[in-house]
Specification:
The chain has 21 helices and 12 strands. By secondary structure, the chain is of the alpha/beta class. The chain folds into 3 domains: about 1-165 and about 305-330, ABC transporter transmembrane region fold (Up-down Bundle); about 170-280; about 345-560, P-loop containing nucleotide triphosphate hydrolases (Rossmann fold), CATH 3.40.50.300. The strands form 3 sheets. The chain has a 6-stranded mixed sheet with strand order 6-9-10-3-11-12, sandwiched between helices. Strands 2-1-4-5 form a 4-stranded antiparallel sheet, with helices on one face. Helix 1 packs across helix 11 (about 300-325) and helix 5 (about 125-165) runs antiparallel to helix 6 (about 170-185). The N and C termini lie far apart (about 75 Å). It is found in: Cell membrane. Keywords: ATP-binding, Membrane, Nucleotide-binding, Transmembrane, Transmembrane helix. This is ABC transporter ATP-binding protein.
């Protein structure tokens, strides 16, 4: 099978589910057209077989051996052609399914990277996860069914033409019977669409609930709340089950309609054809052909019903994808440039001098986090970087030069060395220096394979303090021009915190570093401390100087203790 296409550049500007499905089909039109061609030929071969069988039966009735051998050879050739076209149709169907499904993964992953911090604010984790769990399957299925669906329409038209040319009443019976069956099924599609959309929403909510429970399981066990949340999950899962049963009810009606309606058409066509054969209007071979055609029509008609079901599911899934693609980043960049220099937030008055180790001590942790977000361009603000406004710089350049590392960052699954050195350019010596600066040597030494140890999902084998130190290692190895650390030592013990504070200045020599913290151990090792209250700079200077001159600062960093 051919390899899947490379990722499409950028994110498509699409605002409707139908347009997204059309865009997906257009991006793979060569394989889609090839698949439709094979599927159409596959159906046509099957549509011709009843006629050939009828001719063979007529040859037997007429005792014409030569004609019998000829039609037997034709039937063998059709069988071989059916086998080949069926094989190629299936191969192209799988290729089309995978292309559509993983193209959806590509564009949603690109959009997630483009949105950055905006995505978790606008959508829940379960909503995004469900795209990769179920929506890509439905979108791929909607592309897959186009192959057989198009071929089935051609097969129905071909059979109708053959029947009309052979017997006008039977041909007209099929010609009008098929649309009537389609109309009879159509009232089921709207409630199916509505119930599928509701079921999809509940599945997303349940996925969010599950991820929350898994992420907070340690806390839940600490307070004895796991049984409460397990009960909530059980209740929500029952809602999902009920919604799934509601979808199944409509789908069962569709499945029943696929049997009953074509069965009625078979019975009518066979009955009328038999009456014609009795009075001698058609030969025995044609009667057999009519019966076989009626039986054959079950396949195309079932395919059309399946197409309606799959396209409905694909439409619902595409609507979920569009919801993600339609989100715009909260902050955008420009096309300007900056030589770097002083980084200043005009609203708060926080100013970072180049190549200095600065700390922000805020009376409210939210104020410090807000300042860090503005300085890192994760939130709008009047921030200048040197002589340029930060809003005028490209986002990619800002992310490369200014790194905001907070405790919301996660460790990912994979080899620890790769998870720490995300850019892949650090030497062993640089890794050792970063581990030493973050006081994380003991963590690596305790691992069975050291830096080659595979980290579990979210680094769950590490304690909160160990994860915090490993995140600090990752931030130091990135070596940005400006590093903003938000409470980097809040979960470590005092001994480790003192060692980290003493080593951080050396590790960041020649670079600009800002630490948001109220820890006296860290504040005492910085070059400059800025005290923020109500979002504004209230005092600044050395740590010991502020302890004597600013009672508010002293109360904040000493927690009101004398």
């Amino acid at each position: 099978m051919r390899s899947l296409p490379e990722a499409d550049p950028g994110v498509p500007d699409i605002r409707s589910p139908l347009r997204y499905l059309w865009w997906t089909a257009r991006r793979q039109w060569p394989s889609l057209l090839a698949g439709i061609g094979f599927a159409t030929l596959w159906w046509l071969v099957q549509a011709l077989m009843p006629a050939v069988l009828g001719k063979g039966i007529d040859a037997v009735t007429a005792k014409d051996s030569q004609a019998l051998l000829f039609w037997a050879a034709v039937l063998l050739a059709l069988g071989l052609l059916q086998a080949f076209t069926g094989l190629m149709r299936h191969r192209m169907a799988v290729h089309t399914w995978l292309s559509a499904a993983y193209r959806t993964v590509q564009v949603t992953a690109s959009q997630a990277a483009r949105l950055g911090a905006t995505l978790p604010k606008r959508l829940s984790t379960g909503e995004v996860v469900s795209v990769g769990n179920s929506d890509i399957s439905h979108i791929g299925g909607s592309m897959d069914i186009l192959l057989r669906g198009t071929g089935s329409i051609v097969a129905i038209v071909t059979v109708t033409v053959i029947l009309v040319s052979t017997s006008l009443p039977l041909g007209l019976l099929v010609l009008f019977g098929v649309p009537i069956m389609a109309v009879a099924i159509s009232p089921l599609l709207r409630p199916l669409h509505r119930r599928q959309r509701r079921h999809r929403e509940l599945v997303g909510d349940l996925s969010t609930r599950a991820s929350d429970i898994v992420a907070g399981l340690r806390v839940l066990r600490g307070i004895g709340g796991e049984h409460v949340f397990a009960g909530r999950y059980r209740d929500e899962s029952q809602l999902v089950r009920q919604a799934g049963v509601g979808v199944a009810r409509v789908e069962s009606l569709l499945e029943g309609a696929q049997i009953v309606l074509p069965g009625l058409l078979i019975a009518i066509v066979t009955g009328v054809g038999a009456s014609f054969a009795v009075v001698g209007e058609i030969p025995t071979g044609q009667l057999v052909s009519f019966y076989l055609y009626a039986v054959f029509l079950i396949g195309p008609l079932r395919t059309l019903t399946e197409a309606a079901d799959r396209l409905t599911k694909g439409h619902v899934a595409a609507g979920r994808v569009i919801r993600i693609l339609s989100i715009e980043p909260e902050v955008t960049g420009g096309a300007g440039s900056s030589q770097g220099g002083v980084l200043r937030d005009s609203y708060s008055g926080v100013t970072l001098q180049p190549c200095s180790l600065t700390a922000i001590a805020a009376s409210s942790p939210d104020d410090a986090a807000a300042i860090a977000d503005r300085l890192g361009r994760y939130a709008d603000g009047d921030v200048t970087f040197g002589e340029a406004s930060l809003a005028d710089l490209p986002i990619d350049e800002i992310r490369a030069r200014i790194l905001v590392a907070d405790n919301g960052a996660r460790l990912f699954t994979g080899r620890l060395r790769d998870e720490l050195d995300v850019r892949g350019g650090a030497t062993d010596e640089q890794l050792r220096e970063a581990l030493h600066a973050a006081c994380a040597d003991d963590i690596v030494e305790a691992l069975p394979d050291g830096l080659d140890t595979v980290v579990a999902e979210a680094g769950r084998e590490f304690s909160g303090g160990q994860q915090q130190r490993l995140r600090l290692v990752r931030a130091l190895l990135a070596d940005p021009e400006v590093l903003i650390l938000v409470e980097p030592t809040s979960a470590v013990d005092a001994h480790s915190e003192a060692r980290i504070a003493g080593r951080l200045a050396k590790a960041r020599a020649g670079r600009t570093t800002l630490i948001c913290t109220t820890s006296p151990l860290v504040l005492d090792r910085t070059d400059h401390v800025i005290y923020v209250e109500d979002g504004r700079v209230l005092a600044e200077g050395a740590h010991r100087q502020l302890l004597d001159s600013s009672p508010a600062y002293a109360a904040t960093v000493t927690r009101g203790e004398d």
